[in-house]
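S1.2 Input.
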Amino acid sequence: MDVIEIYLRVRRTDIAYIKFILESYEDLGIVRTVDRKKATIVVLAMPDFIDHVRAVLHALSQELELYEIPPPAEHEADGDWLVGKIRRGE
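S1.3 Output.
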């Protein structure tokens, strides 16, 4: 199963809002906090929904500070077990 990871840098105060918006669309994507100190999150999306996820992220970027970033190094994550499993293909 392929999952697309979109890493974002946001304001800490916006993490819950972004999570609520994306996860309110059933099956669109899952939001995980990768580094709460740096306010780095990852959106996990299925390839079939990536265009919709990108559209929601674009809309959110019109009202929030939201920047796509490259995936952080493995040791920089807060130990998110789900992201680790996806990266290992489990």
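S1.4 Remarks. Residues 15 and 41 are 8 Å apart (CA to CA).
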